[in-house]
Specification:
This protein has 767 residues and is an alpha/beta fold. It contains 31 helices and 15 strands. It has five domains: 102 residues, Orthogonal Bundle (Arc Repressor Mutant, subunit A), CATH 1.10.10.650; 139 residues, Tex N-terminal region-like, CATH 1.10.3500.10; 140 residues, YqgF/RNase H-like domain (Nucleotidyltransferase, domain 5); 108 residues, no CATH class; 74 residues, Beta Barrel (OB fold (Dihydrolipoamide Acetyltransferase, E2P)), CATH 2.40.50.140. The strands form four sheets. It has a five-stranded mixed beta sheet with strand order 6-5-4-7-8, sandwiched between helices. The chain has a five-stranded mixed β-barrel with strand order 11-12-13-15-14. Helix 17 links the parallel strand 7 and strand 8. The longest helix is centred in the middle third of the chain and has 48 residues.
Length: 767
């Protein structure tokens, strides 16, 4: 089975889809571009499917290359057999290829290599042959005593020969495969406390045991962290006796062999000294890799939801970055994100200047017409929230506040990018600016920081950082291209995530814009240094030019389809002015008029036109609901009209549908459909909470075992996965997403531990 066939089978895709997608990827096309503008070619594969295909393609190509390398390396040793070559070629995983190569791999100095250097390999081969039923190995060993080579005794000779065999057995690919499989099925992970009297977050794992094959991913990462911090001792308990019994049955082929005792000891040594530790390392790594992938997937999905939270347009926002000793940083930005004013206030301990803070903030709010206050959720957040809520209650102006996830704001504040944006502003104030702008446009602000710092996952600092970085970059890329970018306001950070644009080109675009003024249409970017036709093809559809005379430059319609759009408008009797002024409400009706409706055949006629009577005629009559029948006829006619229009424009149906959606609402932000933040004017204290009360909250994070919800008190509450729905839930992300507004019921409060338990069972959720 070739790579294309294998991917087709594994990902349940048609062979032609796989072939075309691979050709497009190999041709330098990006995933967002293919997913959006090559739907007809790929059979409408999504960005998720394309990324899965790309990852699998890379793995299988690496596997094929490794097979070639291993075959060549073994052949160079003169040890390649037809059977071995076939086994390598048929291997379906890198692990199997490495197992097959292991016996031929050049090793560093081991007990076996030292024994071979002493000339003991023939003795090892004689022992493994198991021919003799009389005599004893000690007699054979006499012939291998050699003072010059360092073999000074019979015992040393036999020990060296057994070391050679122990390594051979441990390196045997089938032995490793069976031992690994048995351990995976029957083994268990155990953990013990290094100090059982010490109070740590790992107390659950002080005396812990779970089967390898049922081990939950979050528990794998938890015990890994506990082990790394030297709070836990972790061990893999394997079915040693069963594995040893199987190994002995494979190695000892002659029960009457005089060296059976020595071979038995050799197998035991091979397993305990070489194989078992290696299998433990492999399985621990397998569990960790699997847990890493799960955590990365959770983090990526959470990050995607966070990046796509609806922006708050046309609002003057006060960013409130809470703190204690160093004071709370305040920054006000106008509806375009431009900094208007900033200061530092000290309402929290140790100074507690509450009255002075209120006076300062009220003046700033009135001066600039602040509509919303965005409070960061860091240290001092809830105390700051109480003060803000109290201040709002004292004002005649209508002002609301909301809590904003400030994760990564400090990282951004100290970055070169932040310095370039605000060279004359103190580092601490930059964080408040970021918090305010995150409310106005979360995506544009969050792309300025390392995606790993957005704080919506679990164990993100413990997983494979390279893999996490790659996955999150892909998420940001998909989000940015899904939303689209305003070419004349976007930062270099945002532009660098647009399909086809790298960091250098993004900086060149900013430099060109600063030197020549705003881009007045999409084609103008071709004047940017290093931005050629291929880059233009990849990026143009994702860039919006609000100032352009051509309304299509404000949409996701790709320039390659502009001529088709012009023909489309002409056929339906529209103009570009209609597009600009959103006057295409009757688009479907005009499309349906392109193809005249055919008259229905009488129910009394057959296909041949022969007239029927009586019972035969009644059988031809449909007793379907007339309204349903009419709707069905209309839908079928519309499909026919769309096919006709597609043929006239020489574009596929998917492209036509996308084009129509864009023309109906040019410049529309797809995030408008996403949940908006909850705005409050009062505050809730933990002391106000009563079991049974219903509250509205915002989902802040989703993990394997549930979701954390901000209900407006100091601590986020946990909705355990078993409390997310009246139905059984396997994956929390099938029920909620980060940023969702949810209704929850309070089912438990533990003030001492700072734990709040919530439930969504039996509660009608907001749409």
């Amino acid at each position: 089975m070739d790579i294309n066939q294998q991917i087709s089978k594994e990902l349940s895709l048609r062979p032609n889809q796989v072939k075309t997608a691979i050709e497009l990827l190999d041709g330098g096309n990006t995933v967002p571009f293919i997913a959006r503008y090559r739907k007809e070619m790929t059979g409408e594969m999504t960005d998720v499917q394309l990324r899965d295909l790309s990852e699998r393609l890379t793995y299988l190509r690496n596997l094929a290359q490794r097979k070639e390398d291993v075959i060549r390396l073994i052949e160079e040793q003169g040890k390649l057999t037809i059977e071995l070559k076939t086994s390598i070629e048929q291997a379906d995983a890198l692990q199997r290829v490495e197992d097959l190569y292991r016996p031929y791999k050049q090793k560093k100095q081991t007990r076996a290599t030292k024994a071979k250097a002493k000339g003991l390999e023939p003795l090892a081969e004689r022992l493994m042959a198991q021919v003799e039923t009389e005599g004893n190995p000690q007699e054979w060993a006499q012939a291998y005593l050699n003072e010059e080579l360092g073999v000074l005794s019979v015992e040393e000779a036999i020990k060296g020969a057994l070391d050679i065999l122990a390594e051979q057995v441990a390196d045997d690919p089938d032995v490793r495969k069976v031992s690994r499989t048995m351990t995976l099925k029957q083994g268990a992970i155990t953990s013990k406390a290094t100090d059982s009297d010490e109070v740590t977050v790992y107390e659950t794992y002080y005396d812990f045991k779970e089967s390898v094959h049922t081990m939950a991913n979050h528990r794998v990462l938890a015990i890994n962290r506990g082990e790394k911090e030297k709070k836990l001792k972790v061990k893999l308990v394997a079915p040693d006796e069963k594995i040893l019994a199987w190994m002995l049955s494979q190695v000892i082929t002659n029960p009457n062999f005089v060296g059976k005792t020595e071979l038995t000891a050799m197998v035991q040594d091979s397993y305990k000294r070489l194989l078992q530790p290696a299998i433990e390392r492999e399985i621990r790594k397998t569990l960790t890799d699997r847990a890493d992938e799960s955590a990365i997937e959770v983090f990526s999905k959470n990050a995607k939801s966070l990046f796509l939270i609806a922006p708050i347009r046309d609002a003057v926002v006060m960013g409130f970055d809470p703190a204690y000793r160093t004071g709370c940083k305040i920054a006000i930005v106008d509806d375009t994100g431009k900094l208007l004013e900033f200061t530092t206030v000290y309402p929290t301990m140790p100074l507690n200047k509450v009255a002075e803070t209120k006076k300062t903030l009220k003046k700033m709010i009135r001066t600039h017409g602040v509509n919303l206050i965005a409070i960061g959720n860091g240290t001092g957040s809830r105390e700051s929230e109480s003060i803000v809520a109290e201040m709002i209650s004292e004002m005649e102006e209508t002002v609301y506040y909301t809590i904003v996830n400030e994760a990564g704001a400090s990282v951004y504040s100290a970055s070169k990018l932040a310095h370039d944006e605000y060279p004359d502003i103190n580092v601490s104030i930059r964080g408040a600016i970021s918090i305010a702008r995150r409310l106005q446009d979360p995506l544009a602000e969050l792309v300025k920081i390392d995606p790993k710092s957005v704080g919506v996952g679990q164990y993100q600092h413990d997983v494979n950082q390279k893999r996490l970085g790659e996955s999150l970059s892909a998420v940001v890329e998909d989000c940015v291209n899904h939303v689209g970018v305003d070419l004349n306001t976007a930062s270099a950070s945002l532009l660098s995530y647009v399909s086809g644009i790298n960091g250098t080109i993004a900086k060149n675009m900013i430099a060109y814009r600063e030197e020549n003024g705003k881009f007045m249409n999409r084609k103008a970017i071709l004047k940017v240094p290093r931005l050629g036709p291929k880059v233009f093809e990849q990026c143009a559809g994702f860039l919006r030019v609000i100032e352009s005379e051509n309304p299509l430059d404000q949409t996701a319609v790709h320039p390659e389809s502009y001529k088709a759009v012009e023909r489309f408008l002409d056929l339906l009797g529209y103009t570009q002015e209609d597009v600009r002024n959103h006057r295409l409400e009757d688009m479907n009706q005009r499309i349906d008029r392109l193809v005249p409706k055919e008259k229905k055949e009488s129910a009394m006629q057959t296909k041949g036109g022969k007239r029927l009577h009586g019972l035969d005629a009644l059988k031809q009559i449909s007793f379907e609901d007339p309204k349903k029948s009419k709707r069905k006829d209309q839908a079928q006619h519309h499909k026919k009209s769309m096919r006709f229009l597609s043929g006239q424009l020489e574009i596929g149906i998917p492209t036509l549908v996308d084009m129509m959606d864009e023309l109906k609402k040019p410049g529309r932000d797809p995030r408008e459909d996403m949940p908006k933040p909850i705005f409050r004017s009062d505050v809730l204290k933990v002391q106000d909470l009563e079991v049974g009360m219903e509250l509205t909250g915002t989902v802040r994070n989703i993990i394997d075992f549930g979701a954390f919800v901000d209900i407006g008190v100091k601590q986020d509450g946990l909705v355990h996965i078993s409390e997310l729905s009246d139905k059984y839930v396997r994956d929390a992300m099938t029920v909620v997403s980060v940023g969702d507004t949810v209704r929850v019921k309070l089912i438990g409060v533990d003030e001492k531990r700072g734990r709040i338990s919530l439930s969504m069972k039996g509660i009608k959720q907001p749409k």
